[in-house]
């Protein structure tokens, strides 16, 4: 009598290993490949000047009432007289604002009020510290930095020209604090950094088609934004932005990404790494892997113990159990039924294939065979299956690597924004078993820069 796990007709019936997975496909795709895109930003002070002068022109302030401000008997108009100059030093912006100012004021002479007009020219100077808050709000702190007379103010009283530089100077000194406060309020109210950054954030998250042939997309899942403090080098403002997130390739249908409605807080750091990694994923479903194995083994016969025993493979199925690939093989011949083997899939960098190592009979299958077909245990069937089981993915990975390198070479995304990068090395990661497929991951390590030039 044979074992209770086997019928008298030499039919094998071992217990099937349980199907179990440690990770899902989404966890592999989204949580493995943290890296940083290095974005050096350089802005010429000439561009800053151009932007400011384009926005500030002609009449920039006027007070047309003598009765407002507690009947101050004062009217004025202020025009921009020339080009606003911008310099930077010691982490501060220095602005020189050339103005032409007209004033009409009430002057008391012998108990009578006379209204006198004067016009003069002056260069006001300010210094401003510029910061971005964690919520992406622009924060400036402006202080007066003196002024210089170009044409001094005078008035004519009873036929005499009287210089009133000191009087006007005191008025300017009195109001400089409120002027700088107004500048800071206007900057915070009118300069919106959050909206364009959110737009760029969503553009970055959009899957990018690498290959129509393989339906391969490059997907970036940004998580955090880093930024170094502004530094001034001559007439250039420099900073480095780091976009920290997950980057990987996916195959199949274009991944669905919903637009973000908010940004993560900005984190200020002293330095941003300039290396990056992208996970190149090659996917093989269990049905596809079983078909490739069936093409190699189904219908093939194996002989043992000098041809005393013979088996022929009739079918093959595959699924996962934690880190092991389970192979179910149907047999007929000296013994008939199913056997189960388990082995660890890995990426063979030399042959560029998904291969197996440590392929062994499952424990319950081994117990059954020990009692009824020990010759199969002693034979080379498992070793032959391990040696010849391969899923070629080299051409797919090579094409993806080539396409990725092309996309990293001097690729202008929009005007003034260019991506440059290189892949330094390719390192195998591992093969992940998920409920739907085997995912072979190869890590592309290199350097990437997103160069931003000019203000548009």
Architecture overview:
This protein is an alpha+beta fold. The protein has a domain of 146 residues. Helices cover 24% and strands 50% of the residues. It is built from 10 helices and 25 strands. The strands form 4 sheets. Strands 2, 11, 12, 13, 14, 15, 16, 23, 24 and 25 form a 10-stranded mixed sheet that branches. Strands 1, 17, 18, 19, 20, 21 and 22 form a 7-stranded mixed sheet that branches. β17 and β18 form a beta hairpin. The longest helix is centred in the middle third of the chain and has 26 residues. The N terminus is likely disordered.
Tag the structure with descriptive keywords.
single chain, 456 residues, alpha+beta, rod-shaped
Short description:
The protein is an alpha+beta fold. It has helices at 25-31, 45-55, 68-71, 165-190, 194-205, 286-297, 363-372, 374-378, 381-388, 394-407; strands at residues 11-12, 34-44, 59-63, 74-80, 85-89, 92-109, 112-132, 138-151, 154-157, 160-163, 208-211, 216-227, 231-233, 236-251, 266-268, 275-285, 301-304, 309-321, 324-333, 336-348, 353-361, 390-392, 411-414, 417-433, 437-453.
């Amino acid at each position: 009598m044979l074992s209770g796990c086997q019928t008298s007709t030499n039919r094998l019936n071992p217990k099937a290993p349980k199907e179990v997975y440690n990770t899902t496909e989404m966890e592999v795709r989204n949580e493995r490949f943290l890296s940083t895109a290095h974005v050096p930003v350089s802005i010429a002070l000439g561009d800053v000047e151009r932007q400011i002068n384009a926005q500030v022109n002609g009449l920039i302030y006027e007070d047309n009432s003598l009765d407002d401000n507690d009947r101050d008997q004062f009217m004025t108009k202020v025009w921009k007289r020339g080009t606003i100059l911008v310099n930077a030093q010691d982490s501060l912006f220095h602005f020189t604002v050339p103005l032409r100012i007209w004033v009409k004021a009430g002057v008391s002479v012998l108990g009578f009020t006379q209204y006198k007009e004067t016009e003069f020219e002056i260069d006001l100077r300010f210094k401003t510290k510029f910061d971005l808050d964690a919520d992406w709000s622009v924060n400036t702190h402006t202080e007066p930095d003196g002024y210089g007379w170009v044409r001094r103010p005078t008035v004519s009283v009873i036929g005499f020209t009287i210089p009133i530089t000191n009087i006007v100077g005191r008025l300017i000194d009195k109001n400089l604090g409120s002027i700088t406060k107004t500048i800071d309020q206007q900057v915070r109210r009118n300069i919106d950094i959050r909206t364009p950054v959110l737009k760029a954030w969503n553009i970055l998250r959009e899957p990018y088609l690498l290959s129509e042939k393989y339906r391969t997309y490059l997907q970036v899942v940004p998580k955090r934004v880093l930024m170094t403090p502004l530094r001034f080098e001559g007439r250039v403002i420099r900073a480095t932005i780091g976009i920290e997130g997950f980057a990987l390739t996916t195959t199949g249908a274009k991944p669905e990404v919903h637009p973000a409605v908010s940004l993560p807080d900005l984190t200020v750091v002293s330095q941003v790494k300039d290396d990056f990694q992208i996970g190149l994923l090659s996917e093989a479903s269990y049905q596809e892997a079983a078909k490739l194995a069936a093409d190699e083994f189904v219908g093939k016969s194996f002989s043992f113990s000098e041809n005393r025993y013979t088996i022929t493979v009739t079918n093959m199925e595959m699924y996962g159990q934690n880190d092991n690939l389970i192979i179910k093989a149907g047999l007929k011949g000296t013994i008939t039924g199913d056997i189960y083997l388990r082995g660890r899939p890995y990426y063979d960098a030399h042959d560029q294939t998904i291969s197996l190592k440590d392929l062994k009979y499952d424990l319950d299958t081994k117990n059954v065979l020990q009692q009824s077909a020990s010759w199969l245990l002693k034979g080379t069937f498992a070793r032959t299956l391990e040696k010849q089981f391969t899923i070629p993915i080299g051409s797919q990975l090579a094409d993806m690597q080539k396409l990725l390198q092309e996309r990293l070479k001097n690729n202008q995304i929009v005007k003034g924004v260019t991506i440059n990068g290189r892949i330094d090395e390719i390192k195998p990661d591992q093969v992940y078993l998920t409920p739907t497929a085997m995912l072979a991951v190869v890590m592309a390590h290199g350097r990437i820069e997103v160069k931003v030039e000019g203000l548009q």
